[in-house]
Amino acid sequence: MKTPLNFIHAIIEEDIKNNKNESRVHTRFPPEPNGYLHIGHAKSICLNFGTAAKYNGLCNLRFDDTNPVKEDVEYVDSIQEDVKWLGFDWGDRMYYASDYFEQIFQYAVDLIKKGKAYVCDMTAEEIGSNRGTPTKPGTESPYRNRTVEENLDLFQRMRAGEFADGVKVLRAKIDMASPNMHMRDPILYRILHTEHHRTGNQWCIYPMYDFAHGQSDSIEKITHSICTLEFEVHRPLYDWFVKELGIFAPQQIEFARLNLNYTVMSKRKLLQLVQEGLVNGWDDPRMPTICGLRRRGFTPESIRNFAETIGVAKRDNVIDVALLEHCVREDLNKKAMRVMAVLRPLKVVIDNYPENQTEELDAINNPEDETMGSRKVPFSKVIYIEKDDFMEDAPKKYFRLSPGAEVRLRYAYYITCNSVIKDENTGEILELHCTYDPATKGGSSPDGRKVQGTIHWVAAETAVEAEVRLYDRLFVNEFPENVEEGVDYKVNLNNNSLEKITAFVEPFLMGSKLDQKFQFERIGYFCVDKDSVESKLVFNRTVSLRDSWNKNK
RNA sequence: UGUCCGAUAGUGUAAUUGGCAACACGACAGUCUCUGGAUCUGUAGACUCUAGGUUCGAACCCUAGUCGGACAACCA
Predict the structure, then answer these.
(1) Per-position b or e across A83-119, b if 16+ CB within 10 A of its CB
(2) A180-190 pLDDT, tens digit each
(3) ipTM of the predicted structure?
(4) A396: annotated active-site residue
(5) pLDDT tens for residues A62-103?
(6) A121: which nucleotide lies closest, measuring CA to C1'?
(7) Cα A516–chain centre separation
(8) Is the CB of A536 under 7 A from strand B?
(9) Closest CA to A94 of A133, A128, A58
(10) How distant is C1' of B22 from CA of A313, in Å?
(11) Can you tell me which residue has its alpha carbon closest to the C1' of nucleotide B24?
(12) Across A78-160, where does the E strand assignment appear?
């Protein structure tokens, strides 16, 4: 069976067939180290590294670090960690645009010498207003016709630090009347007396992204520069630089960025959520960041599979977060060990079970994977079950415990509920009294009688308390950014996106380690949080299991 | 009133490049089950944005239009 090609791979296969670049495929993932990577970047990472792997090519990791005022090593470290965690390897090809500053400076000198760039003394405001609008042409800078010698001298003096921030810029001399705004004498270099996280104080002028990105790709001999749609309008400019400079020409191909409903994806907004304390840091499990998803319990495989499933195209798209959730479930279903945990405990006393007796019952660790073996679960007279698993006046289709009904305790016994003890004042159900059938040990009866439901439980005596963090969507609105003029999108924040509860878990979980993943049977998938310690376990709910009974209501 | 890009079931992506519109998720129904999970089976759901044209034949090519998106940072 041949898998259909996305449009980028179709282009690449055509290029290979035509022996373009000696049929070489070389991509790159070029983040700016000014924030943490999110699921949208994951799409790009999977695309770039995945494409290289598919065509026996290479993929570089390159930091586009041309703006020292926003960038930081904290981000370059986290980006490397996240790309690695996703399962990709850039080998020895980790680069920085700042590695090329000298070369890029020379490119600028070349342009000046060719009369294609000039130093402009206008202020930012003047340049802005002279640029015109998309429908009106701009006007030319009065400095546009400085001589090559003067430009060369001024540009060298900019580099030497003779001028203050903002008083001069280097601009390309292209066409102030171009219908493409990016061709209206774009700024190439600006003065920034700011220490760079890598080059220190070596430079006080820095190239703009537009003057660095394409050339960086060119220097690295990138064959296919895959980027998002908003850079489509920049492509003529990159091509202009390549042509004027006479350097290797990468081919830029643009694709539509990922959008997820109930989620914001812009770095600016994510930063804001962090800075305003609306979430607990970049790796808050509610964040769509890669580190957030990791802490939430997502696996790299599930994210890669998600990227594969959503495909690549040019039209705008909004993916349902439910698809992302489906991808984790699918992966965790195969891998996660099953255990029992009771989130909202209801005490059950089994009246006819001997006092002080404890049994070790066999439980299968993963019915999807025999090799994961089995374990022992202690059982005794007093147990906890889920509050939801009991109903005093149960509807016909309710298969769990109710007065007079018999259910199976998973891997244990059949029990029947005899009486309900309630708080006299509030009517709240405090405990249940049941009897068990000793012949049903292990969960099946010798007489072959069927029970409607199977519920999970934890023996009270050996139960371990654990903090469980239940996460919900960060936003209540499907499109949180769709707000009326002047309204802050944060009004759409979900006030109940995090609920911390104390649960009882089976003792097996006692020694569980950071990032270990479990399925709490009948509830969902959970992982050990980094806040977890020996004396106080903390679990994050990655995603719930489907519950069709609840859904139908 | 500019330039560039896009438009296919609810959502996303395909369609051997001009030859019966398919797959996944979701929905619904059923099967199975010691997890109301998973599995398995099935059903519904699309005048392929509109109108013309080319053609034996158009989702695909052409023309015009409609709608949507991107672009006016010394950000990337």
Answers:
(1) bebbebebeeeebbbbbbbeebbebbbebbeeebbbb
(2) 999 999 999 99
(3) 0.95
(4) no
(5) 999 999 999 999 999 999 999 999 999 999 999 999 999 999
(6) B74
(7) 19
(8) no
(9) A58
(10) 17
(11) A309
(12) 94-96, 117-120
